[in-house]
Write the structure tokens for this entry.
Amino acid sequence: MGNGSGMRGIKRVAGAMLASAMMLGLAGCNTVAGAGRDVSSVGHNVSRGATATQQGISNATGSSTH
């Protein structure tokens, strides 16, 4: 084998590693974005629950929370 075929093999391996790293990076971004949406959704649900509880207490006691 000549010197040129060894370099082609190295370039091929390096290209495959780069492509793999890029795919993993994109998958990681998707996962982080999805987790952010999940956390945001939980926050909205907690806020809705707190508002409903506040209104229920207000209705039960006849007092205003404002």
Notes: The two ends are 84 Å apart (CA to CA). The chain is about 90% helix and 0% strand. Helices lie at 3-61.
